[in-house]
Amino acid sequence: MTAFTKSPGWLDWHAHPAKPTFKLPPGSVDAHCHVFGPGAQFPYAPERKYTPCDASKEQLFALRDHLGFDRNVIVQATCHGADNRALVDALHASAGRARGVATVKRSVSDEELQQLHAAGVRAVRFNFVKRLVDFTPKDELMEIAARVHQRGWHVVIYFEAVDLPELWDFFTSLPTAVVVDHMGRPDVSKPVDDPQFELFLRFMREHANVWTKVSCPERLSITGPSARDGEQAPYRDVVPFARRVVESFPDRVLWGTDWPHPNLKDHMPDDGLLVDFIPHIAPTAELQRKLLVDNPMRLYWPREN
Ligand SMILES: O=C(O)/C=C(\CC(=O)C(=O)O)C(=O)O
């Protein structure tokens, strides 16, 4: 059994989140969340850049039920590298109520991809955030994308806004649907019509295969206030960005808690209050249904849609 020590300053997930005031539409999907370990059962990867606190499948499913979600999309985080065992274990335990986004290497066999598919994996994640991963050559990623495309999977990409110009040609040549994590991490201290965010909107406007998660205000916000202590209007600086995306591309947006919120430095949000953030960025019942039910179902459970 391996004992892991959390990275210095690590913030654990909120143990007693509020019951949301906002009532999620029936069948809502938390389309971005993680499981971490437990490390004693599913060791963290030797090449990881951080060591988290454990966040088990049971704890994730308890949060799902507490907040009022019906399903989860569990995203492989870099602390597990390309070892998808914790993810697969959670998918098997979910009784069909979770889908997965895996990380694979070029060396993955067709049989392994088949096993991932049978467990509920429907996408691979390519991470370009330099503090999280070492560089992988683009020809390797393109080869993986072509292979998963044949299975009807898509690609989830995580990058920071300043890197979009350099990554543009690669992203726009991906053959699959492409889902961007956290709106491409805009700098929300700039105006919403700043050229940097305009480039991201153009990316979505010109490429009908591009979707995005309008998630992680707690990561993007600079001026807050944070979703704690009953705050019902948190992260006001992120609202215009997320709302612009939801209203411009209502059929290609997803939302997730990002539980257990890895690598936050400043505070740990209350997940109940994060759910209460949703109507600020998706103000009508129709936008909310698309964001939380129709869109994730179309992408991850197309046969049940
Ligand atoms: O959970 C997220 O979406 C964001 C992360 C962690 C992450 O993506 C990973 O480790 O794979 C971050 O910004 O540190």
Can you describe this structure?
This protein is globular. An 8-stranded parallel β-sheet has the order 1-2-3-4-5-6-7-8, with helices on both faces. The relative contact order is 0.16. Helix content is 33%, strand content 12%. The protein has 11 helices and 8 strands. By secondary structure, the protein is an alpha/beta fold. The chain has one domain: Alpha-Beta Barrel (TIM Barrel), CATH 3.20.20. The structure holds (1E)-4-oxobut-1-ene-1,2,4-tricarboxylic acid (NQM). Residues 34, 77-79, 127, 132, 158, 181, 258, 262-263 line the site of (1E)-4-oxobut-1-ene-1,2,4-tricarboxylic acid. (1E)-4-oxobut-1-ene-1,2,4-tricarboxylic acid binds next to loops.
Q: Can you give me a brief rundown of this structure?
A:
The chain has 305 residues and is of the alpha/beta class. Helix content is 33%, strand content 12%. Helix 5 (164-172) links the parallel strand 5 (154-158) and strand 6.
In the CATH scheme, what's the topology name?
TIM Barrel
Relative strand content: 5-15%
CATH homologous superfamily placement: Metal-dependent hydrolases
CATH level-1 class: Alpha Beta
CATH 2nd-level architecture: Alpha-Beta Barrel
Shape: globular
What structural class should be given to the helix and strand makeup? Answer: alpha/beta
Alpha-carbon distance between the termini?
42 Å
